[in-house]
Amino acid sequence: MSNLTEAKSALDRGGVLLVDVREPAEFATGRLPAAKLVPLAGLEESARSWKREQPVVVYCQAGRRGEKAQGILTGLGFAHVTNIEGGFSAWAAAGLPVEKSAHAPWSLERQVRFTVAIFVILFTTLGLWVHPGFFLLDFLIAGGLIVSALTNTCGMALVLTKLPWNRVRQS
Q1: What is the DSSP annotation of 5-29?
Q2: What does the pLDDT read at residue 168?
Q3: Which of 88, 93, 125, 127 is a plausible cystine mate for 135, CB 3.0–4.6 Å?
Q4: Is there a contact between 69 and 18 (Cβ–Cβ < 8 Å)?
Q5: What pLDDT was estimated at residue 169?
Q6: Which candidate in 60, 69, 81, 157 is catalytic?
Q7: 60 carries an active-site annotation
């Protein structure tokens, strides 16, 4: 069940537990219908009460956390665990059904882009008008973006998840 068509067919047949392992703010911005939100950090604890023989389909935003979730569940003795390759992004890009919360915050990726742009404008303006040393902060932001790209992680996104508007209640 590695491709989207097979995953959708299995979900349409029923009897599959569909688990979204993203964070609540991500879940609010878009999810597969009937998905159960269980952030990756709490997956092992939640899964202890699930039936080991029930097929489980996991997904995240792009697939990386889904792979980790698949490994966790397999390690707990689940026999039929699959990860949707490409995650929610691939599902939505394929035009498959999605739903979102009415008052969802911006996606974390969009928040990161906005925050980086604000910082670059601020530090450039301060460098021009206050002191040229502020231009060094633009390089710091650029370095953070390079590290983010090389490691496929984002420290700024982790910080942004802690902000009040991203604390969406789990359903």
Answers
A1: HHHHHHHHH---EEEE-S-HHHHHH
A2: 63
A3: 127
A4: no
A5: 59
A6: 60
A7: yes
